[in-house]
Amino acid sequence: MEDWKKRPRPAFLIALGGAALAWWLAGDPAPPAPATVVAAPPAPPAIVDTLNAGQTLSGVWSEHELDPNDLHPVVEAGMSLFPWRSLRPGAVYRFTFRPDGRLDGLDLKIDRDRRLVIRRAGLRFSAALEQTKFTRAERSLSTCVEGSLWEAITEAGEDPSLAVLMAEALAAQVDFYNDLRAGDCVGAAFTADVRPDGSYKLVSLEAVRFDGAKKRHDAYRHTAADGRPDWYDADGQSLKRRFLRSPLKFTRISSRFGTRMHPILRRARHHDGVDYVAPVGTPVQASGDGTVRFAGRRGGYGLHVELKHGRDYVTSYSHLSRIAGGVRSGAQVLQGQVIGYVGSTGMSTGAHLHYRFIKDGRNVDPLSTDLPTGAPLEGEELARFMAVRDGLRARIDSTGGSAPGYQPETLWVAGGEPGGGEPEAVRDAKPRAR
Fold first, then answer.
1. Distance (Å, whole) CA 187 – CA 209
2. Model confidence, pTM
3. Which of 109, 133, 272, 283 could make an SS bond with 363 (beta carbons 3.0 to 4.6 A apart)?
4. In the CATH hierarchy, which top-level class contains the domain 252-364?
């Protein structure tokens, strides 16, 4: 009986073994199981598109099925920096999103130098207007023409709108269709606001040079004591003629002043003006300051405008597609003001402008007649001009060729590359071979 009590009991041995096993396991614990990492869902792709004609921001919202609750906060955030009514077709917009699908922000390319940036900030949106930082610089160019003036300026790496300003500065001296020849050279001095990428925005044109086969013409912009800027030749003679040599920019002549075979009547007949071919709708300028003597339909002339310039001169513009608003009998017009648009009304075989120049009651050739000019500079004003002229001459002379600095406007690519190129009327103005 006593021996039985001294035997080890099975329950005690089991408990002892369990304790030993627990102590052993605690001394060398097993590594924990790796935690499962759940990857965050990717954000939806950005939406990049271009504003269509007649489309509003609300229409954009509907088109892309964006959360309507975000529209008002976005409009409210941006309205203090940009008037939404000023939004124009062609503006490029870009929507970005957060991983949960909510709108994160809107980038709106207003134009080349302004971008409206709107971002979500909690329950609201914040906005900032980013603008290009410019550096003002004096620039110059010198190049020769093989195609059109527009092509020559573009190939020199400069802003092609310079071609229009250069033609306007020399409008009383050079007809850039009739007088331009392959191999003629042009130069210019101008001021530009340069962007960080080297491209620029044209500010002003200060000087123009045209070296033609027979003659050289210079034009220098000078502000006289009365505060009015004007163009002068190298001797200080005003280039502001009472009349422009041509009432159209960049066109071609189909019929000159003098006897010709009439295209409709089919017989030789005196042509009392000059016919300029241009696309329908091309703006027609008043060649000088004057008063409208007639504006309306007149027989074979079709839609027709006559301007009286003082006691001695009258100019007329025929076969218009329409007459500009405000141009009516008795109205005053200024040189360069648009008075109508090229058409083919009346006795006409195609779109063109029939332009007449009448002096003392007689039709004269507007391409060859001497045009009256403004007053020349004198005294101290002339001396001041000469100093400015010499500096501008030196700028053009120092140009051995321009490094490309102009770049056509580019935005985010949305549905294709941005368009570009020269206007149709400019493309047609090709120089003739010598």
1. 5
2. 0.57
3. 272
4. mainly beta
